[in-house]
Structures are given as C-alpha cells and as structure tokens.
Amino acid sequence: MDPISVAIASLNFPIVTDVSILLDSTLFFGVCLLALLAFFEPRNDKRLKVVRVMVLAFILAISLKEIMKVQRPCIEFPAKIPCPEDYSFPSSHAAVAFALMIAFINKPTYPFFIAFAIFIAFSRVYLGVHTVDDVLAGLVIAPIAYQLVDLLWKKK
Amino acid sequence: MKREIGRQLIHLIIGIAVIASLFIFGQTITALIIAGVLLAGTLIINWKMLGSKVPIADWFHERFERKAQRMPGYGSAWYVIGLLFIVLFSKDLNTAGGIVFILASGDAFSTLFGLHGKRKLPYSKKKTFEGTVAFMVFSLPAYLIMGPTAIPIIALAAFVEGLPFAYDDNITIPIACIFLSYIL
C-alpha cells in the first residue's frame, strides 16, 4: 500500500467514520445517488441517461476488478470495517460517484457534486478498503461509461 | 496550422512532464497530480459552460483549442483522462512511461504530418498514410523506455489512431496499448 493511502487510512474522526460506514452500505449509497439525481435533475430523459451511466460505470468497475485481481489493502492493514471479499481495483463506489458528478458538468451545482464524489473516494481510502489508485481509477471509468452510453443510446 | 502546431506542442510537453513525474514521484503521486488537474479543469469547463470568463483558460482556448467541439476543453479533458488511464492501469513504470510517450509524441506528430498527407488510409476517410507513418516514426523513442515490447504496441497504436472511431483517440489509443501490454 502506498504511503498516501496509509496516511489517509490512519486518520480517525468519529463523524467521518460514521458517515463513511453509512455510505459503505450499497443500499444506502444507491438510494443517496438516486435521491440526489431526482432532486437536482428535473428532466426524466436525462435522469434515465445518468442511471444508465452509473449502472455501466458499476458494471465496468466490477468487471475490471475480476480482470485485474488486485487484493484489498485491508488484507495487510487493519480497516475500520470488515474487509470486503471482492477485489480492490478499481473502486466501484468512486466510479459511480464520479459518473453522477460528470452528469452535472454544465450545471451550477457541479462544485457540490465534485465535493460529493471526492468525499466518497476519500471515504473508501479512509475506511481502509481501497487505495488512492483504486479510487482514481473510478475517475477514469466514469467518463468512459458516459461516452459509451452516448454511443449506445444515440438520439435518433 | 499555427494553432495546430501550438496545440500539438502542448500535447507533447504535457506528455513529457508526465513521464518525468512518473520516474521522479512514482505512479500514485503522478496519478494524484493528473486527477487534480482533471478535476480543476472540469471546474473551469463548468464555469465556461455557465458563461463565466476565465482569463487564462480563455487565452488557451482561443489559441490552442479546436473550433468544433462538444464543449470547451473537450479534447484536452480526454487527453488528461487518457494519461490518467495509462498511469493507473499500466503494469509497471516503464510500460506507463513508454505508452505515455507513444500517445504524446505519436499522436502529436501524426496530426501535424497527417494534415499535409495526400494518400488516404483504406479504413479511414479522414486519416492519411503519411500521418500513420509519422505516428510510428516519432513513437520509436518509446523503445528506450519500455524495450522491445514497444514495437508491437506502437504498431497497434498507429493502427487505432487511424480508425474512424466516434470515440476520442486520446482514450482509444491508451486502452488498446494497455490491453496489448498485458498480453505481451
């Protein structure tokens, strides 16, 4: 594990830990994303597109985990939550959060979504279940998923 | 033409800076720097799209960006995403450095030589044979970074660069190169 990931995982702030653990739950995280999308995006066609992007980003991330087979950092270092059994690289939480962020690039709320995505990425490293490289790979997957959705569901 | 030369010169300089950073600071810090630049860049794109003036970004946009783009900074953003992809997904530092060089140098010179090319590629209406040859020749120094595996990777990258994809070649080239590097 790189020193930056070790330093972040060694931090300990009770509130950040609680929020990070809450967001670790797939169900809670998914509901959060959909609620943010529903609240900030009024157009149904755009909402559908963003859901497609997030689903595709998630599928790409979990597929790459199986291809790259990188072990979780919590195998060697203690984490704040039980170590997940799947692989580490790339982070699917980060990929989906960054996918949501990109959808708002032309909106005044974009800085909020950048902060949200960065917090999600930070929380994964902070909990000790991912490294910095894992979450940054999520940042790469998000625009690729976005472009793929544009290509697959081209407006006629 | 002057705009394109300036644009490709920046393309090349950024690529060389990333290679230097890779060998000085390593993969993670380089990836963090690139990600920081990418996120800051998207904030600037956001401000521009909302109609704000961003003096330095406007200066670069007027001098170096291509006119017909989906949004301001679109091509540059894909280049940075491509660099981040290479840095994070490469199996080692030498492979990352070599592929960054191929993307930076090959793509830059293929554009400059391709603009003067006369013979079209059989599989692309826009790209020329001269551009593909320039891509291969100016990517060759990657051999010094990554060794003999550079040769098939350069050949594949030059082929992919010429393909008429709807996708930006700043991301298709890295994906193809990384994929091949794992096979070799």
Can you give a write-up of this model?
The complex is a heterodimer of chains A (156) and B (184). Chain A has 156 residues and is mainly α. Chain A has a single domain, classed as Vanadium-containing Chloroperoxidase, domain 2 (Orthogonal Bundle). In chain A, 70% of the residues lie in helices and 0% in strands. Chain A is built from seven helices and no strands. In chain A, helix 2 crosses helix 6, helix 5 packs antiparallel against helix 6 and helix 5 crosses helix 7. The longest helix of chain A has 25 residues. The radius of gyration of chain A is 15 Å and the shape is globular. The termini of chain A are far apart. The model of chain A has no long low-confidence stretch (mean pLDDT 94). With 184 residues, chain B is an all-alpha fold. Chain B contains nine helices and no strands. The chains are: A mainly alpha (156), B mainly alpha (184). At the A-B interface, helix 6 and helix 7 of A face helix 2 and helix 4 of B.
